[in-house]
Amino acid sequence: MVTILNGSIQLPKVKEITLIGIIAAVNIASRIALQGLPNIKPVTSIIIICVMIFGLAFGIKVTIVTTLVSNIFLGMGIWTFFQILAWIVICLLTQILIDFYSKIHREPHILIMAIFAFLMGYVFGFIVSLEKLVIGGPSLFIVYYLAGFVFDTLHAVGNFFFYLICSPILLKVFQSNIKQQEKVYHLK
Predict the structure, then answer these.
(1) pLDDT tens-digit series, residues 148-168
(2) pTM: predicted TM-score of the whole model, two decimal places
(3) HSE toward the beta carbon, residue 151, CA cutoff 13 A
(4) Please, are residues 39 and 156 in contact by the beta-carbon 8 Å criterion?
(5) Which residues contact 57 (CB under 8 A, 6 or more apart)?
């Protein structure tokens, strides 16, 4: 089980900007360091965890910084927009799932969230492939998407395992940090 704060804590702006910078730096470093592995990176799982703890707006900010800065190193193009769009959709879907669990007064089990992260690999791949629909129409999109399905599967499997690895660590670190901030800034 994970404890979800769901963005209920408003961090001081300096703290929020710092945290976004640190998380984005981890994401950027992982994208660059693991670029030799096709689509196997912790970025999607970390973004999901950010939305779970700090809320939708925070996750979107991490998404934008991560994508823009890492693509300065990895290559900028029209796909950058679709990568940002894909991760924003994942942020929205995560928020919807977390809101559902909040309404039924439950917390999602780590395995449920790992399966969700797995599925988000396919969501990401589909949305990023929409670039080809814009450039070359439906036939190019279909061919490109089907050719990339193996890579989407690698992304999905990577998300599953990265979520299982990262979630307990990040949730514990973020939650202890938030408890410390509550004492210092009298939040909540």
Answers:
(1) 999 999 999 999 999 999 999
(2) 0.91
(3) 15
(4) no
(5) 7
